[in-house]
Amino acid sequence: MARITVGIGTSHSPILILPGAQWQRRAQDDLRNRSLYLLDGRKVSYDELAAMRGTPYAAQNDPRDFPRLAGEAEAALDRLEAYLHAARPDVVLVIGDDQDELFGHDNLPAISIYRGEEVVMKEMDLPHPRLTWSDKEFWAGYAMDLPRRFPGAPALANDLIHRLIARGVDVATSNSVPDPERRAFGHAYGFIYQRLMKNLRIPMLPILLNTYFPPNNPTASRCHHIGKCIAEALAESPIDARVAIVASGGLSHFLCEAEFDRKILEAIKTRDTDVLTSIPQASLCSGSSEIRNWITMAGALGDLKCEYDQYIPVYRTSAGTGIGLGFAAWQ
C-alpha cells in the first residue's frame, strides 16, 4: 500500500523568494490593488480599505522589521525541507492551485489530478502584468525561469484516480503538457521543487484545485472530504510507496487576517473538523482561497501528529495588507 509518512503545509508567497530588504516592493503592489477581499467576501480597493480601517497596523508594518521576518520565514522553510528529506518519500503529492497557468478559463476543473510522465513548468512571460519589478532570477524561485521538466508519478496517479472515482470524487485528469510555451505548471508546484525538494529528483503527483476563480470553487467541507478520500485511496493501493503530502499556498492574503489563520491552524492541529468544514466560501477568496489546499491536506493526515508549526503575520501596509505565512509539518 501507499503510505503518507509526512505532511507539510507551506506558504509560497513572492516574499519568500525576495530578501527582506525588498519586501516593500509587494507593499507598493498592495497600494495599487483594487481587488482586496474582506473575510465577508466584500471586494475593496486599497484606498477604500484605508478609508474604512484607517491605520490600525502602523506599528506592525515597519520595513526595518522585514529582514528579521524574512529570516524567521527562511528558518521555517529550512525546517520543512529537513522534514521532507528525512522522510525519504518515493512520491511528493502536492495539493496546489492553478492560477491561469496550466488551465485557462475556457476549461477550468474544480479538481484535477495530473497523471503524466513529466511535470513541465511554465516559463513566465515578462514583464509580468502585476509583479512588474520581477525578473528571470526572481521566477527561478518558482522554477518558472525556464520550461523545466520534473518526473511525474503516472502509476500512482492513475491508481488514485480510479479509487477516488469509486468514492464519488469525480476528478478531471490531464496526462501531458503539449504546449509549455503557452500553458504549463505554475508557482504552487515550482516553489515546492525549488525550495523544499531542491536536489530530490523524485516524482511529483500534482493535485490541482480551483481555489481562485469562481464559480466552481470547492467548499471547505468538500476539500476536507476529498483529502480523507485521498488517504483512503492511497491506503488501498497495491503500489508500495512512501508518500509526502504537501499543501502549497496561503494563508490569508492579500489582507493579513491573523486571528482567522490561527483558528484554522489550530483546527488542523487538533483535528477539529467542525471548524474546518464550516469555513464560509466568502472567507476563501483571492489569495486566501489557497487555505483550501491546507484543508484538503488536513483531511488526509489521519493519525499523523503535528511536530512543528510556525505562523508569521506580515503587515506590509498600515491598513493591514500583507500575508499570514504558515509553515507546519506532521509525522
UniProtKB/TrEMBL annotation:
It comes from the Bacteria. Pfam families: LigB. This is Extradiol ring-cleavage dioxygenase. GO terms for molecular function: ferrous iron binding; oxidoreductase activity, acting on single donors with incorporation of molecular oxygen, incorporation of two atoms of oxygen. Residues 86-319 form the Extradiol ring-cleavage dioxygenase class III enzyme subunit B domain. The keyword Oxidoreductase applies. SUPFAM superfamilies: LigB-like (SSF53213).
